[in-house]
Amino acid sequence: MQKPTLLSGIQPSGVIHIGNYLGAIKQWVELQKTHHVFAMIADLHAITIPQEPEKLRENTLRMVKLLVACGISAKGGSVSDGNPDESVLFVQSHVPAHTELGWILNTITPLGELERMTQFKEKQEKSGLYAGLLNYPTLMAADILLYQTEVVPVGEDQEQHLELTRTLANKFNNRFGETFIVPKALIQKDTARIMGLDDSSKKMSKSATSANNYISLLDEPDEIRRKIKIAVTDSDGTVRYDEEHKTGIANLMRIYRAFSDKPLEEIENKYAGKGYANFKSGLADLLIEKLEPIQKKYEELTKDESGIMDILMAGAKHANSVAESSLATAKKNVGFLARE
Ligand code: TYM
Predict the structure, then answer these.
(1) Ligand 1 neighbourhood includes 154 CB (under 6 angstroms)
(2) HSE on the CB side for 230, CA within 13 Å?
(3) How many A from CA of 24 to the centre of ligand 1?
(4) Which ligand 1 atom minimizes the distance to the CA of 195?
(5) Are residues 233 and 142 in the same domain?
């Protein structure tokens, strides 16, 4: 039986923080057993915010290594031979069909739908009003629809974009005939929104002004200890889960739960009467232990980078063949004259 298709993406910032990991990438890795996974590095999306060209190239390569180190099983070569157990790891700009379908979808997207997107409003305040930023969600819809994706594991901040993708898929199908599968977002409630360590009212973010906001998967043990030690808490002093009144501690406890697979109650019992310093030191130990294998694998890949481009070229080949076929159907249904 054919596995259902899963696609998700991440922007090439050079950093994966534990929010990205717990909210999204961990699911991509786990679902590889049961799904045909397309893991995409969203460089076309990245340039909606100004990027240094050399840095963008560097960050894209780093992201490939990080995803492989996290457990995305793409080895290069064999995927194009149709090995069903391998994931397709590819760079968005290597597949021209994304921009082409993105354009077509723009023509059926009311402007108001794009203007009301929370991410657009937030980013536009920071970087100015550019057409690329406004059209970000239609490109994202194209990313997903081209692969006849059924499942899209993402953090909560992408939920609105997924809703629009579903709306556009239905609209296109109704107007031009059945063309796209209408995808579902997969949002893990417990980890969908990991908050910043230095400000528990805002989500953990790569673009935060201070690196104390997040734990990167590549942070050294000392750095992890330092950041957890200064993470915001409260003056109550008891390790108790209270999402409303103890947002800092609640966030740290959710991180602890996700990395240890222990229920919140067990964590509360373990640290009953022991204070925050003790809990924080336990959490830092846990993070160091869990990130070590990822860091080790990343180092190995950095020592020998020869396979990285192989992975990407095989990924691009496979992704292009799937995407071109969907795009051809969409263009035919829209009424474009076929090219002989
Ligand atoms: P990006 O690069 O901002 O983030 C990658 C993934 O990490 C999730 N995430 C979080 N989850 C929990 N807590 C947090 N603090 C946190 N911060 C980020 C994001 O929700 C995301 O799942 N637009 C996308 C990239 C993209 C995409 C796609 C995703 C492009 N095309 C198609 C899915 C399908 C983005 O900027 O993700």
Answers:
(1) yes
(2) 12
(3) 7
(4) 15
(5) no
Ligand 1 atom closest to residue 139's alpha carbon, by position in its atom list: 31
Q: State the CATH number of the domain containing residue 62.
A: 3.40.50.620
Write out pLDDT tens, residues 163-220. 999 999 999 999 999 999 999 999 999 999 999 999 999 999 988 989 999 999 999 9
pLDDT band at 83 (very low <50, low <70, confident <90, very high): low
CATH number of the domain where residue 246 is located: 1.10.240.10
User: pLDDT tens, 234-276?
Assistant: 999 999 999 999 999 999 999 999 999 999 999 999 999 999 9
Atom 34 in ligand 1: residue holding the nearest Cα: 8
Instruction: Looking at the CA of residue 136, tell me the nearest atom of ligand 1.
Output: 23
Asked if residue 201 is part of any domain, the answer here is: no
Q: How far is the CA of 78 from the centre of ligand 1 (A)?
A: 28
16 C-beta closer than 6 A to ligand 1: no
Catalytic (active-site) positions: 123, 203, 206
Same domain, 292 and 312: no
Is residue 121 located within the same domain as residue 227? no
Question: Going by C-beta distance under 8 Å and a sequence separation of 6 or more, which residues neighbour residue 234?
Answer: 245, 246, 248, 249
Structural domain containing residue 287: 211-300
- The domain total for the chain is 2
Tell me, yes or no, whether 86 and 150 share the same domain: yes
Distance CA 95, CA 317 (A): 9
pTM over 0.85: yes
Could you tell me the two tokens for 91?
């760079």
- Closest C-alpha to ligand 1, atom 14: 19
